[in-house]
Amino acid sequence: MRVVRTPFAVALAATCAVALPAAAAAAKPKVAAKPVTVRGVVVARQQARGTLVVATAKGAVATLRTNAARRVGAKVAVRATRLADGTYGARSITGHGTARRAKVHGVVVSSAKGRLVLSAGGSVFSVSRRRVLSAVGASGGPQPGSVVNASLTINSSSGTVAESKVQQVGRASLVSLDGTISSLASGSLVLTADAGSLTTVAIPSSIVLPSTIAAGDRVELLAQFASGAFTLVSIQDDHAAASSGSGTTGTTGTTGTAGTTGTTGSGNSGGEQANVEAEGVVTAVSSTSLSVQGEHASPVNFAVPAGFDVSGVQVGARVDAKGTLAADGTITLARLEVQNAHEGNGANADVKVEGTVSALDAGSLTITSAEGGSPVRFTIPSGFDVSGIAVGDTVDAKGVANADGSVTLAQLDAKGAGDQGSSGDQG
Q: Are 91 and 115 in contact (CB under 8 A)?
């Protein structure tokens, strides 16, 4: 299911908190992200992605989206705005010479063939090792999933970065990855990072990938790491996530990761739960579950715990949801902010569904999405012609979410042979 929002809803968005276990609190204006200054050293440059990876003096990492060319080792001060996916859109960059050393706090993705591949600040990048390990996870170095503090040596002339010291400080249960999908099957995908590493990520049956994501696409994803394997939690198109107001991020456990970005999550070695945050539109809600979908992203399904009041949340509402990730992959809702267009939750938000007509009568149309999630029921307004539509048809429907939680049908296109068929509009 793909859900879009209108510019009108964006311009009038406001935020109210739904707290555990109380009901919704009073609404307050949603404030646009303010520019911040990121100061640090460029430790990686991802030309294909159009980003610079910058490490601050304390080791926090920020991913800066910019077309400006800066060499590895450059000391920079960047005026930027934090984007929904946790990366930063750079407005201006000022150079301040070069550095020979840097610190990085991140999670080990792999360690082999003389390379240490790290996830930090919304990027995956590699540094040279002082010696080659015999295999992934060999005793001579940190294993995948380790949260580390790494001291780096930089040769700005050659553009190379090498480790000088790596200290393990915890274990990660949630890891942020980015790269290009090199292969995609029903139960797994292989991600190729700019660092050249290949990471296999299992896709659980509960996650249906957006139809817009295919092999060859550049993506960001969150993966749970357990028993030496990565399992998908959420995936989104990298460029769409950077330009839209929606996305999914992970936040830190007690060991922490790059504190300025909040995009790479980790739990501590004691097994403390990691946090997952999803910003998007509610596609399904009940007293026990909530599904949130960002643009060009897979839905994130939250379990609603007993005592958490979601009675005021409706399909079509735009929300910022936060939850805790358990070892079995369940994400339990812990905090929810509803961003309203008007006093009614989600009023005037646009809802778009591509799928199969599962029910049809004189007053309503129900569509089961091809991308998973609960069926969406549209109210058919007076004068809307659906005479050419039947149960079992594949359709593309658009509607407007109402304050009472219903969705009024506004446009309907039937997908027939050659992707041509009948269409209806309110008229």
A: no
Beta-bridge mates of residue 102 = 152
Residue with the two structure tokens 């149309």: 365
Two tokens, residue 343: 């006093």
Q: Rounded to 5 degrees, what are φ and ψ at 335?
A: -155, 145
Is it true that the peptide bond before 35 is cis, omega within 30 degrees of 0? no
Q: Give CA–CA dist 270/284, Å, rounded.
A: 34
CB 88 within 8 A of CB 82: yes
Q: In sequence order, what are the residues at sequence separation of 6 or more whose Cβ sits closer than 8 angstroms to the Cβ of residue 11? A: none
Question: Are 72 and 43 within 8 A, CB to CB?
Answer: yes
CB atoms within 10 A of CB 208: 15
Per-residue DSSP letter, 251:
E
Query: What's the rounded Cα separation, in Å, for the pair 127 and 171?
Result: 20
Q: How far apart are the first and last CA of the chain?
A: 26
**Positive/negative CA dihedral, 257, 321, 237, 171:** positive
Q: Which of 132, 100, 97, 99 is nearest to 114 (CA)?
A: 132
The pTM score is: 0.63
For every residue of 52-71, DSSP letters joined together read EEEE-TTS-EEEEE-S----
How many angstroms separate the CA atoms of 108 and 96, rounded? 30
State the residue for tokens 């394997």: 229
Q: What is the pLDDT along the chain (427 residues), one digit of tens a residue?
A: 333 332 222 222 233 333 333 333 333 344 456 788 999 999 999 888 889 999 999 999 999 998 888 899 999 999 888 887 788 888 888 888 999 999 999 999 988 778 899 999 989 999 998 754 444 444 557 888 999 999 999 998 888 899 999 999 988 888 999 989 999 988 999 998 876 788 999 999 888 788 788 899 999 988 999 888 999 998 888 877 666 545 566 644 333 332 222 333 334 333 345 788 888 888 889 999 998 887 777 888 899 999 898 888 888 888 889 998 887 888 999 999 887 543 334 445 667 788 889 999 989 999 887 655 567 889 999 889 898 899 999 998 888 877 666 788 988 988 764 443 344 555 4
Pairing of strands 188-192, 198-202: antiparallel
What residues pair up with 251 in beta bridges, in sequence order?
Answer: 275
Question: What's the rounded Cα separation, in Å, for the pair 377 and 363?
Answer: 10
Beta bridge partners of 303: 289, 332
